[in-house]
Amino acid sequence: MSSHMASQQADLEFDYVVVGAGSAGCVLANRLSADGKHKVLLLEAGPKDTNIWIHVPLGYGKLFKDKTVNWMYQTEPEPGLDGRSVFQPRGKVLGGSSSINGLLYVRGQHEDYNRWRQRGNVGWGYDDVLPYFKRAENQQRGADDYHAVSGPLPVSDWRHDDPLSEAFVKAAVEAGLPYNPDFNGATQEGAGFFQTTTLRGRRASSAFCYLRPAKRRANLHIETDALAQRIVFEGRRARAVEFRQHGRVRTARARREILVASGAYNSPQLLQLSGVGPAELLKRHGIDIVLDAPGVGNDLQDHMQVRIVMRCSQRITLNDIVHHPLRRVLAGAHYVAFRKGPLTIAAGTAGAFFKTDPRLASPDIQIHFIPFSTDKMGEQLHTYSGFTASVCQLRPESRGSLKIGSADPAAPPEIRINYLASETDRRANVDGLRILRKILAAPALQPYVTDEAYPGSKVIADEDILAYCRQTGSTIYHPTSTCRMGNDALAVVDERLRVRGIEGLRVVDASIMPDLVSGNTNAPVIMIAEKASDMILRDAH
To answer: Which of 131, 365, 393, 430 has most Cβ atoms within 10 angstroms of its Cβ?
Structure first.
């Protein structure tokens, strides 16, 4: 931690104030402070990343409901999911959600970024963003047209031999999918093994990769336990951030820009609390309107997952290790000694991307396979031997919203995602589960399968599969697009991520995505921040 900690009120003036030390904020803090010319303040509402479970890959299960490092939000009751509220974990710690996520490194499809470009976002096509994916990356397999080795973010192959994950990939090929050795290469379609943001068996969060090497710089100041309450404006220019820390309110002024990097929930929440948002909502909560921006909090999107749980005929699952005292101790010792084994399991070991309709241009479903099973993620593993494969529809049409529920910055926002609101989304989930069942019934998996625990053999008809989706569907933790980039009336930021109608303010995180990428969101957010840091520094000259 910098010895020049911003502890005196008089010191609280910087060139850049970054709000949120998550996947994007840590990148910005590193890149903007690198040349020593700019004074940067990084604010984080949560603590330092000292919790031991942050650094063990399988630790995400322990952090799923740990309020010391997790905002632990809930959606409002979801009409498409039988009125259930869906738990929404979000990182509240240095590293943000990259400190508690499932570690998968998936960039999405080339088509995602070309779609952004076609919608008028100049500079965001696949060929434009690929150099920033590569700039971030330290690829274990070496460099090629799609990968690089000189970046701060380690991307690694899995460090555990698991016969079930290998059998799943073989089964997917038997069911007609091509084998794909690299989901982040020339094409995404096919079955294979996920890579993870780990280094020699330890989690590589953005705090580990980007902040740790930079934190001793005299021009970078990091404040933890610092909750941003509002952005202070002079007219329509953002001038300062007011934050609460250890019971007192402090103000940090920005000579150049304020960069909001608080994620798809907290970024629009902060803008609304600061008077930038839908006028009617702000009036209702007694907030002075700086700019009537109806798009702030609009267009919320998320990936839903529906899981199939299989009973395993052999005691080779993580369930068996966890429920066997000696095997549990041995797995821990193996990890401590070699940084290998079951404790390196990410939120997906093997996976697949496929089309539910051959007429589609690219896959619309992602499968995550994991060699354990549970009733709900974050809860106790089943006492029987089990494994899980889940369906995730990649480009949902359903749209929701994020709205403040009160003028209190510490109060959780109202989150409405509207899962399964569109017929396309309902159809894709039903068809995706049918195709997944074919994979799970293929010959390679049969030596390991006893039967399907859920939804079970009685759930066959389309309406019964859809009912199962409504009863059990949940998030796969990829909220985006609440401060959407674009040039239409509801777009919040322009293609340089500047808040439209405001000076000195940008948003840099998953909330700026014009729409969801076809895959996990951590790698794209790091890319967005890498690209943003270039634009910010260029605009400073």
So the answer is: 393
Beta bridge partners of 155: 139
Alpha-carbon radius of gyration of the chain: 23
Whole-number Å distance between alpha carbons of 360 and 351: 20
For 322, left (φ over 0), alpha (ψ -120 to 50), or beta? alpha
Segment 217-249, tens digit of pLDDT = 999 999 999 999 999 999 999 999 999 999 999
Q: What is the pLDDT of residue 338?
A: 86
Cβ burial 88-101 (10 Å sphere, 16+ → b, else e): bbbbbbbbbbbbbb
75, 415 in Cβ contact below 8 A? yes
- In sequence order, what E strands does 443-530 have? 449-454, 474-475, 505-507
In angstroms, the CA 538 to CA 541 distance is 6
Q: Tokens representing 293?
A: 């921006």
Strands (E), 214-340: 220-223, 226-234, 237-245, 248-260, 276-277, 291-292, 298-300, 304-312
Instruction: Give the pLDDT confidence of 407-439 residue by residue, as tens digits.
Output: 999 999 999 999 999 999 999 999 999 999 999
> Does residue 478 carry a catalytic annotation?
yes
Host H or E run for residue 24:
helix 23-33
Cα distance between residue 31 and residue 29, in whole Å = 6
Task: Single out the residue of 522, 528, 517, 527 nearest to residue 493, CA to CA.
Answer: 528
Strands 248-260 and 505-507: parallel
Interval 510-525: pLDDT, tens: 999 999 999 999 999 9
Rounded to an integer, what distance in angstroms lies between the CA atom of residue 476 and that of residue 351?
A: 14
Question: In the prediction, which pLDDT does 7 show?
Answer: 41
